[in-house]
Structures are given as C-alpha cells and as structure tokens.
Design goal:
Largest sheet: 2 strands, antiparallel
Structural class: mainly alpha
Number of domains: 3
Distance between the termini: 38 Å
Shape: elongated
Radius of gyration: 23 Å
Strand order of the largest sheet: 1-2
Length: 229
C-alpha cells in the first residue's frame, strides 16, 4: 500500500512539472515568436483570441484567451524556467501571478514552498495581507530579505504579526465577546488558528495548569514554537 501511494505521488509530481513546463513554453512562444520578443500587453488584441481558437481545436478545452494571457504572464514573470518549483502546482502559480507587487509575490511563493500551503491556504494568507503585516515591523533591507527568503524565525519578535487576523471566527453581532467564547472558537477552529500563528506552532492544551510557589494558575491556551533559534 505504501509503495502504491509513493508511486502515485511521484506520478502526480511528474505530471505537474510537465504541465508547468508546457504552460511556460506556451507563454514563451507567445512572447518570443508571436510578439517578436516584446512584452507589450496584447490581451485586448485578436492574437490571443486566434491562438485560443487554434489550440482548442487541436487539443480541446483549457486554452481560453484568459488562460493564454496567464501563460504569457507566467513566462514574462519567470523568464528562466529553472527558477520554477515543482512543489507548486499551476493553480499556485495562477494565484501568485495575480499579485502585482514583485516583493509580495516572491514572499508568498517562498512561503508556499516552505510551509506546503495549499492554494486555499495561499489565498487566505494573501487576503489577510500576511506579507504587509510582517513587513510593518521591518526596515527596508529586512523587507527585501523577507521577500527573497520568506519568513525566518531568528528572534522572538519574528514570531509576532501585527495585527493578527481571525476572520474565520463566527461571533454574534455584538460589541462584546466573552473570553470563554473566544477560547472555544479558537480551539474549535484550531487548524485555522495555527495557520494564522505561523509555521512551527504546536497546540499544547487549554486551561493549562502552571504551579508557582505551590499556587496553581490556569492559562487559557498554551502553544509551543519550535522555529526560534
């Protein structure tokens, strides 16, 4: 059974790499041959429409004008194929290509590879402005490093975000939320909470007892973090 699962994973990885390479090469063909090497926007011209028609006739569905535009943008954004990662799917890259800021796109790409984000997790982190929140407490050089390498935990301050976003919680429409309600919601949606906290966090327990000088204290929620050096 394990051998079969590994075989399937290997096959899927190979298919994914072939698919990414094919779409990249289509983008290259559009730019280098149809556009004669220029990067001018052609979305509104007849060129992509004609190419889409030809490709759909020859190979079936999947080559709409908007998809060809995305493949063209794929090549323009990643002109060297070796910089692409087989860890990411075409759906990952399609989401990344919708990010116009190069620094933010680079950051989310590195985080996807480092933390194994699904496309859904990528969208959630992007919509919650993770890059912008982490960048708030950093200088220009640190922001560039964040975009280039992703999030690295070198000190305790690197763990913190400003602010935290808990849009996945479902509270009644009122101004005051009870502490117990917050605790219950966070533990009920622990997967979402851990994703927001970031890589390396593990849930230890709730109402965790700590004893100091023979006096018992109870901490609502306790997590450990294994990335800090």
């Amino acid at each position: 059974m394990k051998l079969l699962e590994e075989g399937r994973k290997t096959a899927l990885r190979k298919v994914n790499i072939i698919l990414i390479e094919t779409y990249w090469n289509i983008g290259k063909y559009i730019v280098e041959y149809e556009q004669k090497g220029t990067e001018r926007a052609i979305y509104g011209t007849e060129l992509l429409k004609l190419l889409a028609k030809d490709l759909n006739t020859s190979f079936g569905k999947g080559f709409s004008k908007s998809n060809l535009y995305l493949m063209r943008l794929f090549y323009v954004s990643y002109p060297t194929f070796q910089t692409l990662s087989g860890k990411l799917s075409w759906s990952h890259y399609a989401e990344l290509l919708s990010i116009s800021d190069d620094l933010a796109r680079s950051f989310y790409e590195k985080q996807c590879m480092a933390e194994g984000w699904s496309v859904r997790e990528l969208k959630r982190q992007r919509n919650s402005a993770l890059f912008e929140r982490l960048a708030l407490s950093k200088n220009k050089e640190e922001v560039l490093q964040l975009a280039k390498k992703g999030q690295y935990i070198n000190s305790a301050k690197d763990i913190l975000k400003n602010p935290y976003v808990f849009e996945f919680l479902d509270f009644p429409d009122r101004d005051v939320v009870l502490e117990k309600e917050l605790e219950t919601q966070l533990t009920d949606k622990l997967g979402h909470f851990l994703l927001e906290l970031g890589k390396g966090f593990a849930f230890i327990g709730k109402q965790y007892r700590i004893t100091l000088d023979n006096t018992h204290f109870y901490v609502d929620l306790v997590f450990s973090q294994s990335n800090a050096s």
